[in-house]
From TrEMBL:
Source taxonomy: Bacteria, Pseudomonadati, Pseudomonadota, Alphaproteobacteria, Hyphomicrobiales
GO cellular component: plasma membrane
Pfam families membership: MS_channel_2nd, MS_channel_3rd
Keyword Chaperone: no
Membrane topology per record: Multi-pass membrane protein
Species of the source: Rhizobium setariae
Keyword ATP-binding included in the entry's annotation: no
Transmembrane segments: 6-24, 36-58, 78-96, 108-127
Compartment(s) where it occurs, according to its Swiss-Prot or TrEMBL record: Cell inner membrane; Cell membrane
Name this polypeptide is given: Small-conductance mechanosensitive channel
Domain Mechanosensitive ion channel MscS C-terminal: 243-311
Cited function: Mechanosensitive channel that participates in the regulation of osmotic pressure changes within the cell, opening in response to stretch forces in the membrane lipid bilayer, without the need for other proteins. Contributes to normal resistance to hypoosmotic shock. Forms an ion channel of 1.0 nanosiemens conductance with a slight preference for anions.
Length: 342
């Protein structure tokens, strides 16, 4: 028979454990701080009652009263371990919320939660029910090896996801560009894959193992402003300094590009046919590239027309024209020699 104080203590622990579960669910996921406070209060109360009654949850007992009261004591200790797991998980989730990186830390959160539940399950089996944990762990190790061999690709994605989370080459919301030309904004990063929203408004799902091996450019760091280089050919009948001034004035009147740092007009080369320029300007984000390029082309065209500046034909059209004339081979080589000299 149980001593009367012990019986009351075990009943109180069971009641506290059940009430804690009910209140925990009533708080909801939207109130992590309140949930954590409730978990801590109920867990602390259960711990105090168990310790005062002489029952240690992490001690292996034999049969009878020493085990903590039979079925009543077993349920009390199981509830204590469950509340310990929830309190630990509550601390982890609260830290993630306060750190303001809930999406980036989702993978770590899932791993920690899984580790906590696994540890608590083994503790309940070992301390509450007295099962041989060593044998169980050895058996589970063999099973884990078999499962690991069967899930090599999945585990590769998992560990690559851990490496990406630790290295932090990107965060949720960053605009990235891969070596294969894929680019877009990162919208999700989980234990298996990374989801990228492309400019075509499609979701590209990239396995973490593949993403960890490919070259990646983060266009959001150090900031999201993006450099655009636009080539331009002006007829060589104009003085380069005048062309430079006219084009730069046109860029300074554009609203879709960043004016600090100021846009640049770089004179690259000049020959008998054309002055080659390179317009360098920034936009606030990669999504503004097309509107900014459209505006720059329109404004530069209007400014050149207003100042009587003519554009030069593209190099490809000159090559085709020269190749079609008598003695085209000689004329082509002469043009190449002139360009090389200049």
């Amino acid at each position: 028979m149980l001593a009367y104080p012990t019986f009351l203590a075990l009943v109180a622990v069971n009641i506290l454990g059940v009430l804690g579960i009910i209140v925990w669910h009533l708080q909801g996921r939207q109130r992590p701080t309140a949930r954590l406070i409730v978990q801590i209060l109920f867990f602390a109360a259960m711990t105090i009652v168990l310790v005062l009654s002489g029952i240690i949850p992490y001690r292996v007992y034999g049969a009878g009263v020493a085990s903590g009261g039979g079925l009543l004591g077993t349920s009390a200790r199981v509830l204590w371990w469950v509340h310990l797991a929830w309190a630990t998980i509550g601390f982890v989730r609260l830290y993630i919320v306060l750190d303001r990186r809930p999406q980036e830390a989702r993978l770590f959160q899932d791993l920690i939660v899984a580790a906590v539940y696994l540890g608590v399950t083994l503790s309940i089996v070992g301390f509450v029910f007295g099962a041989p944990i060593g044998t169980l762990v050895a058996t589970s190790g063999v099973v884990a090896i078999i499962i690991g061999l069967a899930l090599q690709n999945t585990l590769g994605d998992l560990f690559s996801g851990v490496a990406l989370t630790l290295g932090r080459p990107f965060s949720i919301g960053d605009w990235i560009q891969l070596a294969d030309g894929t680019e877009g904004r990162v919208v999700e990063n989980n234990w298996r894959s990374t989801h990228v929203l492309t400019p075509a408004h499609n979701i590209v799902v990239l396995p973490n193992s593949a993403l960890a091996k490919i070259a990646l450019t983060n266009l959001t760091r150090p900031d999201e402003s993006h450099l655009i280089v636009l080539p331009l050919r002006i007829a060589a009948i104009h003085r380069p300094s005048i062309v430079h001034e006219v084009i730069l004035t046109a860029l300074q009147t554009c609203y879709c590009i960043v004016q600090d740092p100021a846009p640049i007009v770089a004179l690259k080369s000049v020959d008998a046919i054309a002055i080659e320029l390179e317009l360098q300007f920034r936009v606030t984000s990669p999504t503004q590239r097309t509107p900014a390029r459209n505006e720059v082309i329109d404004v530069v065209y209007g400014q050149c027309a207003a100042n009587g500046i003519a554009f030069a034909p593209p190099v490809q059209s000159l090559i085709h024209w020269i190749a079609g004339t008598p003695g085209g081979q000689t004329a082509t080589s002469g043009t190449q020699s002139l360009s090389g000299a200049l």
